[in-house]
Design a protein that fits this description.
two-stranded antiparallel ribbon; 2 domains; Peroxisomal Thiolase, Chain A, domain 1; alpha/beta; nine-stranded mixed beta sheet; 14 helices
Length: 391
Amino acid sequence: MNLKDLRGSVAIVGVGTFGGGETPGYSNIEMLGSAARRAVEDAGLKMKDIDGLATANLDAAMWPLNVVEYLKIQPRFVESTNIGGSAFIAHLLPSMFALVSGQCDAVLVCYGNNQRTSTFSRKDRGRARMMLDPNPWEAPYAPVNPPSSYALMAARHMYQYGTTRKQLAEVAVAARKWAQLNPEAFARDPLSVEDILKARMFSDPFTVHDCCLVTDGGAAFVLVRADRAKDLPNKPVYVLGNATAVTHRGSAEMPDCTVTPTALAAPRAYEMAGLGPKDMQMAQVYDAFTINTILAMEDLGFCKKGEGGAFVDNGGIAPGGRFPVNTNGGGLSCVHPNMYGAYATIEAVRQLRGNCGERQVPGVKTAVVNGNGGVPASSQSVAVLATADAL
């Protein structure tokens, strides 16, 4: 089977989120379960209809077993590759193969985390992860990761291409302006470039506003074959392309501090979709830090390498700007419960359905979604989603 044969063969038919800010008293699995039930209901299905599962969580080595038990499902297909926050976008392609081959009929992609209100401290979480997944080359120097490694990327981009602190700040301001149009966003207070530049330095050149939120939250979406999607209640959003790339584990081995693996994944995703950057009407990208968005604009092909700062400057990706990016507010202002990729996908689906109210981008038919995982930007996954009009 050729990858192009999979183009449009599968659609996202249900989405659901839960929490998104502070939701005390809920465990990771309860967050996930609440979002999963909403997604399945939104798809017009029952939990008993779910026979495929794609999930990952940094807090448990065999997380899918917990999810299966909690949701009381018996999947014929399980995908649990964990490459960080990009995992939920990377889950798309194996899920498509499973659906088209008949291995299963409905795949639930789901995630939940109580990072903000957990009684398990952030320091304890960090220690536990270092034991499970050590990075021997950098750990001895005790970097404040992930911010330190992403700050290194930002500093290099500034040195090499003249990117400015103001341009980094413009990313956070744009995210906040979108969040102010989104009643589900956690951070909606006014935020200016000046506020960001004067804020407490966290990891040079980042101030606290260059860094993503720490929230609770659950997110889930449901995939079925395209022929079945037509009989379900919501407007199907078709998966036209998906590709994933990994080039390194830590910053010391990154081939180029100013280029992410998206530069490898995006062309493959576009080729599978039969479309290119010029055909995309919006982007939902994983903005763990402000530099992520600038690099994504370059590596997704919306501008040349080194021009990402100018692309986002002066409200370029804010409401009313030249190109809509992270229309829910992204990880910087909407939600970020440790892994964000599923939320980027869900926002693209909601926009393509036309369900976004005040922040709705009119007439949108195509969207590119970009997931980021690892430290720094070690794994990247790109998906091209579209309505039936773009098939």
